[in-house]
Design a protein that fits this description.
It contains nine helices and three strands. The protein has about 190 residues and is mostly helical. It has a three-stranded antiparallel β-sheet with strand order 1-3-2. The longest helix is centred in the C-terminal third of the chain and has 32 residues.
């Protein structure tokens, strides 16, 4: 899966929800937090072609029997192979590298978990996210203390502190999300 881009994985996740055309997918990117992935036709349509070439998506057979709309939009659906790729991606363990460099991807994975993996995976994901994020934030707190010993008040120190506070908020969110999911599964 190393050659699969986050854009391609997001497309797979969206197509798991329901068959959609490239245009429909672009609208989703434009109107949601996924907008910074890319809403460009120059990115989305080539990604759809790559996914189709890999056998992970296919034209929607139900739409094939209907007359094409005025714009000739083709709907795609996820194949069994695409579903397997999605599930594999969702079940990847949360790593230190993820919490440092891939927070958006982590949240995207979490967003697609319902209905695709058992609730136990979502709970394990949150546990691991909290654990890895907690270890990393403690290391950053030590770095911040060292920075403060060199320069007591500096805009760089304050910016660094802002990042730590954001990570603390993510840890708090993971705890709350876990409590809600645990309560919901009773």
């Amino acid at each position: 899966m190393k050659t699969t881009s986050i854009l391609e994985l997001a497309l797979i996740g969206l197509l798991q929800q329901r068959p959609q055309s490239g245009y429909d997918l672009r609208k989703t990117f434009v109107t949601t937090a996924m907008r910074h992935l890319s809403d460009s036709p120059g990115s989305i349509y080539p990604a759809l072609r790559r996914l189709e070439a890999r056998g992970w998506i296919a034209p929607n057979p139900a739409a094939a029997n209907q007359p094409a709309n005025a714009r000739g939009r083709q709907e795609f659906h996820l194949t069994a192979a695409g579903e397997a790729i999605l599930v594999d991606w969702l079940q990847q363990p949360v790593t230190r590298h993820d919490v440092i460099w891939r927070n958006f991807e982590l949240m995207l994975r979490f967003a697609f978990m319902d209905g695709n993996v058992p609730r136990s995976y979502a709970l394990r994901f949150l546990d691991r996210l909290e654990q890895e994020q907690g270890i990393y934030v403690e290391e950053l707190r030590a770095d911040l203390a060292h920075m403060r010993s060199l320069v007591p008040v500096h805009t760089g120190v304050l910016a660094f502190q802002s990042g730590i506070l954001g990570m603390d908020a993510l840890i708090d969110w993971a705890r709350r999300a876990r409590a809600l999911l645990t309560e919901d599964s009773r």
